[in-house]
Amino acid sequence: MNSAGPGRLAGYTTLRLGGAPRQLVTATQTEQIVQSLRDAESRHEPILVLAGGSNVVVSDDGFPGTVLLVRTRGFQVVATDDETVTVRVAAGEPWDDLVAATVEAGWSGVECLSGIPGSAGATPIQNVGAYGQEVAETVTGVEAYDRVAGEVVRMTPEECRFGYRASVFKHNDRWTVLSVDFRLLRSPLSAPVRYAELARALGAEIGDRVPLADARATVRALRAGKGMVLDPADPDTRSVGSFFTNPVLDSAAYLALRDRAADLGEPPSWPGSGDTVKVSAAWLIDKAGFPKGYRGADGVAISSKHTLALTNPGDGSTAALLALAREIRDGVHARFGATLHPEPVLVNCAL
Ligand SMILES: Cc1cc2nc3c(=O)[nH]c(=O)nc-3n(C[C@H](O)[C@H](O)[C@H](O)COP(=O)(O)OP(=O)(O)OC[C@H]3O[C@@H](n4cnc5c(N)ncnc54)[C@H](O)[C@@H]3O)c2cc1C
Predict the structure, then answer these.
(1) In ligand 1, which atom is closest to the CA atom of 165?
(2) pLDDT category, 233, cuts 50, 70, 90?
(3) What pTM did the predictor assign?
(4) Helix 95-105 vs helix 212-225: angle between axes, to the nearest 10 degrees?
(5) 197 in active site
(6) Above 60 in pLDDT, residue 54?
């Protein structure tokens, strides 16, 4: 574990935004994560757990406490049977490296989550999902340090309370994830393809299984076309991915929205759980007058490839990014009556 004088957190986030913390600590061993949390606790010091920095918006003022960089690595098979393997993955393991290894090994279940930046340990936080898959389908357990109990605990998927881009961990610093167990199918083929755009690109039908490597390559290509795979040469990828979640409306609110959008055609939507409908935030943003490339102050802008990504292609500020996000949120509300909620975690700042 090493402590360093605080540089700007911009260097640790994919948006390249954020001022300095009071202290920066790097943990390469699980025990160091636990010890740092206990130390900060005993000093009554705020602590921010940061891994890949791909889902945080950090204030220009930085963070008034310790930032703990999770840099643990590695995974191991902890259980097997004829059909499945269970891999236990250290929190700091880069997520896409893990996905690549599972595809290579012929283990099916996370291939459609290829190309998502960040760490394996952060995937349970918002139940990371894309192209018809989410980690809730394969997570069988989470090992976490519980700051209330003051000990390391094992949590079941039920205790994780996974939802759409949500879990018990999001906006809650009680637990720090130390490792995650994923149960994967021994199969050279992907899980059934559920996402129409992916099926089209694969030349497959919904429900088909395709070779794992094809699923991975096709997802990565689709994502790259939208600026959704980190690429230092592509300023559109300086983002947190989607800035807003898709609004989930009850049927009355959905009908009201459809009325207000009647002149624009049917808003793209998907059935949500129970009596709810999930509406495309990208469509609402675009139709409210914020197209791809729309610019805010200080060079911050909507990605030129994806309406949902707010980017900092140059030398912008968190204040400018949040001002753009507010303008979009308020514009969508004024036009359609729907409220957009941010997907990333806002650190020491608010929308
Ligand atoms: C280009 C791009 C594309 C993206 N595409 C997708 C996508 O398709 N689907 C999707 O769901 N997300 C997507 N994201 C968002 C992001 O990659 C994921 O949310 C990812 O899991 C964040 O991991 P991280 O390690 O970077 O987390 P960080 O940004 O470091 O942290 C995010 C939050 O999790 C907390 N956290 C991190 N590690 C731990 C831990 N070990 N224990 C407890 N809390 C922790 C942090 O405190 C913070 O609150 C995208 C982001 C980018 C930049």
Answers:
(1) 11
(2) very high
(3) 0.95
(4) 150
(5) no
(6) yes
